[in-house]
Amino acid sequence: MRLNPTKLGTLGLAHVLMAAALTACGGSGADNAEQRAATAGDNETLQEKASNTAAATSTVVVRAWGSLANGTGPLVDLRVNGVVVASAEVRATAYQDYSFTVPAVPGGARVDVVFTNDAMLDRDRNLFVESITIDGATIPATAEGVVLDRGLGDKAFDGMDVLPGQRSVLWNGALRFVAPGATVLSRLSPGCTTFYENRPGFALSTARSVDTAPTLSRPAKGAALAEPNYQTCLTRAADHQADRVSGFARNDYSRRQAFNADSSKHLVAAIDGHWHLYDALTHTRVKVLPYLAGDAEPQWHATQPDLLYYLPTNGMGMQINELNTATGATRVIGDLGARLKARWPGANAAWTKSEGSPSKDGRYWCLMVDDSKWNSLGVITWDRDSDTVVGWMNTNGERPDHVSMSPSGNYCVVSGDGARGTVAYSRDFSQQTRLLHKSEHSDLAIDANGDDVYVAVDYQSNAGDIFMTNLRTGVRTALLSSYANGSATALHISGKAFNRPGWVVLSTYGGTGSTQWFHKKIMAVELKPNPQVYNLAFSRTASNGYWTEPVASVNRDFTKVLFNSNWGNGSSTDVDAYMVQIPSGALKASAATPTNPGTPTTPTPTPVPNTPPTITVGSATHSGYNASYVLTTNEAAACRASWSSGNAYGALYDEIPSSANGLTHSKSLSLGSTAAQTVYAVCKSKASGLEKEVAIRLP
Known about the structure:
Oligomer: single chain
Helix content: under 10%
Strand content: 35-45%
Structural class: mainly beta
Radius of gyration: 30 Å
Mean pLDDT: 85
Shape: globular
Strand order of the largest sheet: 1-4-3-6-13-10-11
Number of helices: 3
């Protein structure tokens, strides 16, 4: 549970290729001669290498122009994965295409256009790049994921002084692209890309030793540093003071996906209720997001990086909205108010209570419905694509701690501390499986077989099990013990790595007793018995209230994890978001388990195969102010009804008299208008308690 609270487009240049013998044009000045001499030496080395290999080649086209100073244009190196493959002096004064044949550029390779001789002489020497084209695929300098790393020499690749990609390269620096087909490093920040390029043998640590977090000075925002014990790349993603974010700049919650569809942006929450958009590659604060306030429950679109869903604060107003974070345009995609009031006249809010998420494709939403005094009325499943409510359930006043849709969209999970506990309901609420006797920190994830699983901690079990339960089979599998040598720990779980099924992120904090190997860490945990556990980072937070909890959230492909820390200073609010980044493929599954996934450690819950009653509408008449209708049900049921005008829901769900052993239901009513009416009738099975609603049109 949680608290609410901007220089190469066309190159007009004489160039020197290293992998292909192209002619270089001269310029003036001793510095230029020295640089060309160095370049020639590099060319010979690369040509020698090229003559000894039968490797395929790629064509790279750079479109750029330059402003000359003292008759010399910008000097440019073209690098692929850190190796200089071409050099040129850019002398064109308008955009022009230049083609280079270079060693084959693999998908995901880092391709850098490096400006090395910025100067202010008789005029300012600058470089302007419109795009690069790699084997026919054009990438604009302003494309998502392109960055400009400013600095001379190694500083152009350190990820420390980084701007979003732009055409005007007005300083020494590297305009950094990623070749199409990226699979390994494309989603990492420039600093972490360089970090792992310099560590080709990197492997994640599986050590289960009691490690002490080495003292590190609080890093500057964007600086890439190595986690000393585990050699993962750690960056400070936000600095609330420098970024002018009120109070703190923290990740909101582990159960919410912090990163957008392509992991290029992430969200940050401020103490004043504002939501901020950050560039996940450069760590630049982009903007304050409009319309969102407080518990607006932002949820990223599954495939479109600029789109974000949000609710009115605390769900009041019962609308689901869509925001284009690039343009600021917003629209309502679902207005549930009238439909919810038709069933529950006091309905005032529809939300997940800030901890839930829609299905992984964003289609299905599980929402709890409250009245104006936050009394619970019910739970629904809403289908975004058809804008229909596909399932209803009365809560009879037992308010959930939160609700959430499973990744597949097949289950609405209602989590609570009342008699119901935590239950997975089918989308239409016709079946149910109890998952836990109460609500604990948890998340919904996808296991290696593609099934929805509920991952949580059970502090009432003997070992304080961190476990998963398969929502389809009901099988519960113990993963880890949270109790060890008389100690205990608090924890959060993030199962949002939908594109990397079989893994969750575990972030631990607080606790009692002696320090154990899993305390105060960010870890990747495999979803299988005797799981592989990878150490990612220490949180370095000194627990002091809710805001200091790390609540780590993982991106869809498990290459970035955003978490919170006060960096050990003990403050309850001096908290910023930090990011641990790992290459794609770093997670290695353990040996396959020969049996089916999971060994039950408690009796298998039995799904309830009940279905709601069938309702057949018989005769329906309407004359003046009077109307009548007859319903029949396939099983004994108690029925109630209201109508769309007249009493204006004041008599919501009047009882409908029953006969024939509760199978026939007849109603005569006096309406407040002679206009056409719609009656909403609900019949509840006397045996199972399940309900079915039908709309009756009175002409």
